[in-house]
Design goal:
Length: 220
């Protein structure tokens, strides 16, 4: 091999070595980008699966509560059960029955994530009072609000009134009862924020009573 050929070979090897190092560096950068994207996708699937779980749990809970409340239009006011006491306002027994049913059934929602439960007389929009959107809805008249209390492991009355003796439970014209549950979902990783609101509601017509008991004022 002549001297010029040797110098050319050395330059070629040097160029190939530099190219190899550049390729290794580019591969490392590409791996980091792809790994970050992959981990984001995986954590995203986990996070939104858990969020979906909470939405499904809220839906199941309100349907359970609405079904129990709708079956009890003549239950009257709250009465003590198993040593419990009723609030001085004595909210309707059907509302407490709905809250107790959700409590007994349990829910996939973490208990400390539940913010409040409403049981209310539903209007034509399925909302309490005269509200047409949940943003404008309040729970006061013909609506009872409960809050989950971890120390008692049960829903506890918070506010609101409803004289259910005025419920119309006649065939063809019965009132409707709604149950609304609001909770706060906490994300695990924080990649998509820290929390997200979870809520749902269910509305059912009251099961009819006998004709001599179905009118407002004709039952407890």
């Amino acid at each position: 091999m002549t001297a010029p050929e040797g110098r050319v070979l050395v330059r070629v090897r040097a160029a190939l070595g530099a190219r190899g190092r550049r390729d290794e560096g580019a591969a490392a950068v590409e791996f980091a980008i792809v790994s970050l994207l992959l981990f984001t996708i995986v954590f995203g699937i986990i996070e939104f699966s858990l969020l979906l779980r909470d939405h499904v749990a809220a839906t199941s809970a309100v349907r359970t509560g609405a079904r129990i409340a709708a079956a009890s239009p003549a239950a009257g006011k709250c009465t003590p059960v198993n040593g419990t006491t009723c609030p001085s306002s004595r909210p309707p027994a059907l509302a407490q029955a709905a809250a107790d049913a959700i409590q007994r059934q349990g829910t996939a929602l973490p208990r400390n994530s539940i913010d409040e439960l409403w049981v209310y007389k539903a209007n034509a929009s399925g909302l309490p009072g005269t509200a047409t959107t949940w943003a404008s809805a309040t729970c006061s008249t013909n609506c009872v609000k409960y809050r989950w209390v971890d120390a008692n492991a049960r829903f506890t009355y918070q506010s609101g009134t409803w004289d259910t003796s005025q419920v119309n439970a006649c065939i063809g014209s019965s009132d409707a009862v709604g149950v609304y549950l609001k909770a706060t979902h906490t994300f695990l990783t924080g990649l998509f924020g820290s929390t997200a609101g979870v809520s749902d509601f269910a509305v059912m017509q009251f099961e009819p009573l006998q004709s001599d008991q179905c009118s407002p004022g004709a039952h407890p």
